[in-house]
Design goal:
The chain is α+β, with helices and mostly antiparallel strands. It has 7 helices and 6 strands, in the order αββαβββαβαααα. Strands 2-1-5-4-3-6 form a 6-stranded mixed sheet, with helices on both faces.
């Protein structure tokens, strides 16, 4: 008898459980492996080995997971990217999406390597050799066990870039904020619209309205520029 999609996805997750421990054991204490099931975004972590980002079973996805959710079945593996945790660790990571037999994305297997010591050694050797230089700025990613802290960190980062309050944004700026949050998958998370509204000091209805307008303008722009080429 053919498995239902949920049963099939459960089987894939179960098959990867020992893989999580195996990869982490192979690379040692600098490695963390996290298995996500996006059917429950707020509690997507179903298995974890290692402690690079302090994740725990039952924890939430990071903004990387939100981005995967936002892209849906068009999401692709993200391999060997470098980021930094909010505690300062430099992390080399790979996120590999999980698909069922229909091609639908429903989870991810993430491998995080703490390469902070490698960077420190590289900087020291460069200084000794007289070729030291500034390390390129690395984006900071918030890894939290609750989804609220992740959403808050995304909002804080956006406000730092804009250096303006909600009241200081014009209509285009407000739509750009909601478009940016939407593209990063924030609104794929339950209750995120209420959290964003509370942080910005606006009503939930206003937040929904801005989100709707942002999505409409994005669709209009995409229709006007097929394949990204202006007519």
């Amino acid at each position: 008898m053919k498995l239902s999609l949920d049963a099939e996805r459960d089987a894939i997750v179960a098959a990867l459980m020992p893989v999580v421990d195996g990869i982490a054991a192979t690379f040692g204490p600098v490695c963390e492996v996290v298995l996500h099931d996006y059917r429950r975004p707020e509690e997507s972590v179903v298995a974890v080995a290692g402690s690079v980002t302090g994740r725990a079973v039952g924890g939430a996805m990071s903004e990387i997971g939100m981005r995967v959710l936002a892209r849906g079945d068009a999401a692709r593996d993200e391999l060997n990217y470098v980021t930094r945790t909010d505690t300062g660790k430099l992390v080399k990571a790979s996120t590999m999406v999980l698909r069922d037999s229909t091609g639908a994305v429903f989870g991810a297997l993430c491998v995080n390597l703490d390469v902070t010591a490698v960077q420190d050694a590289q900087s020291l050797l460069g200084a000794l050799a007289g070729i030291g230089g500034d390390v390129a700025e690395t984006p900071v990613i918030t890894f939290g066990n609750d989804i609220d802290s992740v959403v808050d960190a995304i909002l804080d980062a956006h406000q730092l870039r804009q250096n303006r309050s909600w009241a200081g944004l014009d209509r285009d700026g407000r739509l750009e904020l909601f478009r940016s949050l939407d593209e990063r998958g924030v609104f794929a998370v339950r209750r995120a619209i209420e959290q964003v509204a509370a942080r910005l000091g606006i009503s939930r209805a206003s937040a929904y309205n801005y989100l709707s307008q942002a999505r409409t303008s994005t669709e209009t722009e995409a229709a006007a520029t097929p394949d990204g080429v202006h007519a």
